[in-house]
Amino acid sequence: MAQMMNCIKFKPKAGSHDALYTAIAIYLRDYPLPDTVRLSAHDIGDGEHALIGFWDDLEDLADVLSNRIDNRFSDVIKPFVTSYPSGDEFQSFSGPGIDYNAFLESEG
């Protein structure tokens, strides 16, 4: 199975960093993610932050997303973020990992 990555970017409201990350910590304490995911938070500059998750496989990611429809992570942090010019509070993307070493194995 291919490792999966997902990322959610957002812009915290001014002065809300402590409340935002406290809300994230409480959510993850009360609704822990499986051991098959590694999650990290990053200040990526220009007022943007990102939460990046690395999942062992697509099934683990899909399972968490489908089982938390009524308790979505984005709903918990939405009060602490400001909208992008598009009106969206978040920008996100995901995709499978690429084993770049496999390209070396194919060399002559």
* Total beta strand runs: 5
* Assembly classification: single chain
Compute the CA-based radius of gyration: 16 Å
CATH topology, by name, is: Alpha-Beta Plaits
Helical percentage? 25-40%
* Total of domains: 1
Descriptive overview:
By secondary structure, this protein is α+β, with helices and mostly antiparallel strands. The protein has one domain: 2-Layer Sandwich (Alpha-Beta Plaits), CATH 3.30.70.100. It is 31% helix and 31% strand. The chain is built from four helices and five strands, in the order βαββααββα. Strands 1, 2, 3, 4 and 5 form a five-stranded antiparallel sheet that branches. The longest helix has 14 residues, at 17-30. The chain is globular and about 50 Å long. The protein starts with a strand and ends with a helix.
Could you give a short description of this structure?
By secondary structure, this protein is an alpha+beta fold. It contains 4 helices and 5 strands, in the order βαββααββα.
Describe the protein's topology.
Blueprint lengths: L3 E9 L4 H14 L6 E9 L2 E8 L2 H10 L5 H5 L3 E2 L8 E6 L4 H5 L3
Antiparallel strand pairs: 1-3, 1-4, 1-5, 2-3
